[in-house]
Write a sequence for this structure.
C-alpha cells in the first residue's frame, strides 16, 4: 500500500483547521491558553532564533559579493523609492475605500470587543517623544551586539551593509571572512528546514489560543470593518501588486502558488519573520541574485509594510466614523502624510500597527481610546495584512532584480511552473 505524504502546506492547513475547532469547542476556557500558548511561543522563539543570523550572514555575503559601494548605494536608493511609492498607493487606497464604504457607520460600541490598550499607549508616548533626527540616529547602533540582543533590525541591517562593504574593500584578505559567513548562511538555511517540521504544531497552538480567547462572536459586531479590510487587501494584492508583477514579467497567481507554503504559515502565525529565510531561499532559486535578495527583503520588513499601512488608513477613518467625526480633505491628507512617516519610524516597535495608529489618531482629532473597540479583532485582520506584507516584499526583490538587469525571467517561470 502506497504511503500518503502530506506537504508542508497541507500539514499547516490541517493544523489551522484543528486549532480553530479546539478554539470553538473550548471557547473562553483558560486551559486552552495554558496548554497551547507555550507550544505556540516555542515555535515563534525557534523562528526568531534563526532570523538574525540569517539576515546578518546573507547581507554581508550579498553586499561583499556586489563588491562596489556605488552599486549598493544605487540599489538602496531605488529600493527605498520603490517602497515609498507602493506604501503611498496602499495608504491612499485605504483612505478612498473607507470613504466610499463607511465601515464605521452604525457600529454598536457596546457590543464591540473591548481590550486594554495601555501597553500600546505607553509605547506610543515613548516613540512620540523622539524627534525625526533621533529616529534616524537610532538606525546607527552604538553597540552592534546590543542591537542583536534587542532584535533591532534596522541597526543590524545598517551594520551588516557597512561590514559587507568593508570585507569587499580589502579584497583577497576578506575572502576567508566571506567564506565563513557564506557557510553560516547555508548552515542556517538547513536549520530552517529542521524548524519547519514543527510548524504545523505551532500553527495549531497559536490559532487555537486566538479563537478560544476572542471567539467567532467578536467578528459579528465589527464584521463590516473586517470584511472591508480583507476585501481591500485582496484588491491591493491582485490589482496593484498584480500590475507590478506583470511589469516585472511575473504572473501574480503563479507567484502566489510558488510561495503558498510560506503564505499559509505567515497567515496562521501573523508573523512575516517565520518565513523570511524560506522566502529568501525561494527567490534565489527563481534566479534573483543573492546580493539583491539579502539586501531588499530584510529592509522591506521594515520599510515596505503594504498590508499594515492599508489597514491603518481604513482603521483610522473607521474610528472617525464611529465617533461621528467628519474629516476634511486637509485632515485626510495629513493622515496620509503622517502614516507615511510613522509606519517607517516605528517598524521595530512591538505591536506596530496599534502603536502607529495611536501616533496617528491624535493628529486628526480622533480619541485614542477607540482602539479598544477593534483590539479584539485585530489578530484576525493581522493575519491577512501579514500575507500582503510578505507578497509585497517578495515582489520587491523581483522588481529590484529586474531593474538591475539581473533577473532571469525564463528561469523564474520554469521554477514556478515546476513547483505548481
Amino acid at each position: 500500500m502506497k504511503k500518503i505524504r502530506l506537504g508542508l502546506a497541507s500539514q499547516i492547513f490541517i493544523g489551522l483547521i484543528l486549532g480553530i475547532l479546539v478554539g470553538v469547542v473550548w471557547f473562553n476556557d483558560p486551559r486552552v491558553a495554558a496548554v497551547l500558548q507555550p507550544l505556540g511561543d516555542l515555535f515563534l522563539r525557534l523562528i526568531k532564533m534563526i532570523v538574525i543570523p540569517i539576515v546578518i550572514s546573507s547581507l554581508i555575503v550579498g553586499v561583499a559579493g556586489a563588491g562596489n559601494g556605488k552599486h549598493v548605494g544605487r540599489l538602496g536608493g531605488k529600493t527605498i523609492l520603490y517602497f515609498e511609492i507602493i506604501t503611498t498607493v496602499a495608504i491612499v487606497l485605504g483612505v478612498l475605500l473607507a470613504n466610499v464604504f463607511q465601515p464605521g457607520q452604525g457600529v454598536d460600541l457596546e457590543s464591540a470587543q473591548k481590550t486594554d490598550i495601555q501597553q500600546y499607549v505607553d509605547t506610543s508616548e515613548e516613540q512620540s517623544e523622539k524627534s525625526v533626527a533621533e529616529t534616524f540616529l537610532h538606525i546607527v547602533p552604538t553597540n552592534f551586539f546590543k542591537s542583536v540582543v534587542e532584535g533591532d533590525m534596522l541597526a543590524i541591517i545598517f551594520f551588516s551593509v557597512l561590514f559587507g562593504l568593508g570585507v569587499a574593500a580589502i579584497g583577497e584578505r576578506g575572502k576567508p571572512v566571506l567564506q565563513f559567513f557564506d557557510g553560516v548562511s547555508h548552515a542556517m538555511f538547513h536549520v530552517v528546514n529542521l524548524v519547519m517540521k514543527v510548524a504545523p504544531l505551532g500553527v495549531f497552538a497559536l490559532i487555537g489560543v486566538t479563537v478560544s480567547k476572542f471567539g467567532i462572536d467578536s467578528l459579528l459586531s465589527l464584521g463590516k470593518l473586517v470584511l472591508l479590510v480583507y476585501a481591500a487587501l485582496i484588491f491591493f494584492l491582485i490589482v496593484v501588486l498584480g500590475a507590478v508583477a506583470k511589469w516585472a514579467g511575473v504572473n501574480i497567481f503563479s507567484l502566489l502558488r510558488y510561495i503558498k507554503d510560506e503564505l499559509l504559515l505567515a497567515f496562521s502565525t501573523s508573523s512575516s519573520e517565520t518565513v523570511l529565510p524560506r522566502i529568501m531561499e525561494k527567490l534565489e532559486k527563481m534566479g534573483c541574485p543573492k546580493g539583491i535578495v539579502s539586501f531588499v527583503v530584510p529592509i522591506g520588513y521594515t520599510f515596505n509594510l503594504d498590508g499594515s499601512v492599508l489597514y491603518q488608513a481604513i482603521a483610522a477613518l473607521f474610528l472617525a466614523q464611529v465617533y461621528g467625526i467628519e474629516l476634511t480633505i486637509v485632515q485626510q491628507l495629513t493622515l496620509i502624510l503622517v502614516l507615511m512617516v510613522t509606519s517607517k519610524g516605528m517598524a521595530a516597535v512591538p505591536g506596530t500597527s496599534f502603536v502607529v495608529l495611536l501616533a496617528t489618531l491624535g493628529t486628526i482629532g480622533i480619541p485614542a481610546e477607540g482602539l479598544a473597540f477593534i483590539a479584539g479583532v485585530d489578530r484576525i485582520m493581522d493575519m491577512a495584512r501579514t500575507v500582503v506584507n510578505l507578497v509585497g516584499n517578495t515582489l520587491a526583490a523581483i522588481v529590484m532584480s529586474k531593474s538591475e538587469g539581473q533577473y532571469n525571467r525564463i528561469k523564474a517561470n520554469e521554477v514556478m511552473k515546476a513547483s505548481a
The radius of gyration is 22 Å. The chain has 21 helices and no strands. The chain has a mean pLDDT of 80. Residues 24 and 216 are 8 Å apart (CA to CA).
